[in-house]
Write a structure and sequence with these properties.
Blueprint lengths: L1 H13 L2 H17 L6 H15 L4 H18 L9 H7 L29
Length: about 120
């Protein structure tokens, strides 16, 4: 159970939400299978991990993220010079694939079961 909780915490730190969800579900199954008086500290750790997982897309989490970004902006002082992206623009537009000439094809519609055709070569 401790392994599942630690895996969930690592996945949450890496923002690997699918792995975190899976690890939390495994830890919850293990916690439910064991007697309640045996796994008290693990249940507390699991509850804390669930709160961190649940706060990933909430407005409160977004406000914290914005506050951190604003604090980092003020601490810097000077703005970095804008980078020129000439090579990226040229590489971003892929070349179209060459068109192959398939020639003048004739489909035998009678052989395909569509009835006789009046077109002959």
């Amino acid at each position: 159970m401790q392994q599942a909780i630690s895996l969930a915490n690592m996945a949450i730190n890496k923002k690997n939400w699918s792995a975190a969800r899976y690890a939390l579900s495994r830890a919850r199954v293990l916690a439910d299978a064991l007697p309640a008086n045996v796994v008290v500290p693990e249940r507390e750790r699991l509850a804390a991990a669930r709160k961190r997982f649940a706060a990933r897309n909430t407005p409160a989490a977004k406000k914290v993220k914005q506050a951190k970004a604003a604090a980092a902006k003020r601490a810097g002082g000077k703005k970095p010079a804008p980078k020129k992206s000439t090579a990226k623009k040229a590489a971003a537009q892929p070349k179209p694939a060459p068109v192959r000439d398939l020639g003048d094809r004739f489909i035998n519609r009678a052989a395909l079961g569509y009835g006789p055709t009046n077109e002959k070569r």
